């Protein structure tokens, strides 16, 4: 689905995610977590987050499956400013160690099997320096809104954009159906398939990758994650080397 046409319109149809009140807290938290180290973004897309993070002085490298999306990013910044490797986030390796690896806006769900998602966690861990952090932003599936016998949940219903998500509870598969009402009166349809992951399942994937849970928020602003939260920003840490751990003092 991430072809030339999608890449060309991606920034426009995702305009709300570029709003300062959305993007600002995202970059603020990621910059704090990166500290003085470098960051690696899986599924960097057109650079919505990676470019402003690099502008903060954090060295950023990206991995992106879609050559079309990567080409769109390249119109904004050059290779020296933000290098990007075209490849999948479950297996692609880039040189160096990073203090931060991150995935935003549900991107890990583009991996449509549990095995691929586990491999993504392991790939993140391989790229992290000891003490480094892996951050994932992900939605919580709204399955409580599904009555018996119903498989679709309305996600967005404004005048220009309708989104319906259909769920297969047996396989944890989700298909997002998007309908855009164009200015000329026509309706454009697009869909994408995903595999949803529960927060506790993410924690188990992190454990399999040798990562330890550090924090979980409802959003990038640090608001508490609760039973009613519709999304989460989760942080796991790669344990520091034994030599990096200072003994306790009296």
TrEMBL record:
Record-annotated Methyltransferase domain positions: 40-132
Keywords from the named record: Methyltransferase, Transferase
Gene3D superfamilies: Vaccinia Virus protein VP39 (3.40.50.150)
Region (Disordered): 220-250
InterPro entries for the chain: Methyltransf_25, SAM-dependent_MTases_sf
GO BP of this protein: methylation
SUPFAM superfamilies with a match to the protein in the record: S-adenosyl-L-methionine-dependent methyltransferases
Superkingdom classification of source: Bacteria
Pfam families the record matches: Methyltransf_25
Keyword Repeat: no
GO molecular function terms attached to this record: methyltransferase activity
Protein's recorded name: SAM-dependent methyltransferase
The organism of origin for this protein: Frankia torreyi
Taxonomic lineage from the root: Bacteria, Bacillati, Actinomycetota, Actinomycetes, Frankiales
